[in-house]
Amino acid sequence: MNTIGIKALQTNPALLTKSLASGEYTLLTKHGAPIGIAVPFDSQILDHR
Question: Is the pTM here over 0.70, yes or no?
Answer without folding.
Answer: yes
